[in-house]
Amino acid sequence: xxxxxxxxxxxxxxxxxxxxxxxxxxxxxxxxxxxxxxxxxxxxxxxxxxxxxxxxxxxxxxxxxxxxxxxxxxxxxxxxxxxxxxxxxxxxxxxxxxxxxxxxxxxxxxxxxxxxxxxxxxxxxxxxxxxxxxxxxxxxxxxxxxxxxxxxxxxxxxxxxxxxxxxxxxxxxxxxxxxxxxxxxxxxxxxxxxxxxxxxxxxxxxxxxxxxxxxxxxxxxxxxxxxxxxxxxxxxxxxxxxxxxxxxxxxxxxxxxxxxxxxxxxxxxxxxxxxxxxxxxxxxxxxxxxxxxxxxxxxxxxxxxxxxxxxxxxxxxxxxxxxxxxxxxxxxxxxxxxxxxxxxxxxxxxxxxxxxxxxxxxxxxxxxxxxxxxxxxxxxxxx
Length: 383
Fold this sequence. Notes:
This protein is 27% helix and 32% strand. By secondary structure, the protein is α+β, with helices and mostly antiparallel strands.
């Protein structure tokens, strides 16, 4: 057994010296303290790196087809009433979403910028159409003023007259002369809301192709393949104040580290000419993959801005706030990664071993230098 122990001792890579032969010095203590401080600092740094998450970006070609693009927004119009604004989406695939309201909330705002307690509904520009129809005789059939169709032969409410005009591609410019609108107090409601503002928030789902969505005064309609808005009755002889603040605008689901370049962007009307505010957006499909494997399919975007006087040909000749978007063929894939435990342990061992080695070299150099100086001083050779 003793021979076995003796044989094992030969493999000891760390031979020990007797305590009596060890010399402790002040310089060695200072070097040890400094080495300990450095070791603790590097350990904390290595530990923070181990706990942190790295993002590894990768660029690929976007090969997805037939998907929908979700647009989330919140925009404030301090000088444009909710009843005057319509939200439309048009894409290059030929799909038109006119006067969208099923996924959008409009909060009315007073002239001081305070939100009113009620949300806007279309009926607020007139009496409730169900209430109106209940007051009418059972055999009543209101005129559609030449806009009748096989499907719509009677227009009993102002809203039905407007829908009939829209179906014909006609402009609805004289509601005061329409019996149904006069009965419902349509123009009085418009006059009563003209000093209000509006906060719109919600989302749109559009085809994943280039297109635009916009906020403009007046109800929209199509005529000879042109996109138009009935806005004359809302102007009140002083133009349209489309000053606005984009609280937030995003495409798709939120993800960590997101940056939305249009958040908190504000535009103020110059008070002279009706203005078209345009934002040209390049949407970049993005995948964010968490370390645990969860994947978010979303988008990021860049934007340029432009504004000009309204007028001329085309849909953007109408005063409004227009967001023109196009999609990049390149997809960005972000993947979370973190340092493995084995790498962390390896780094800690390297820190401890490296500092011990360097500090022992420094201590040995100082110790032997001081001993050499002391000997020379004893012999009188040091001047």
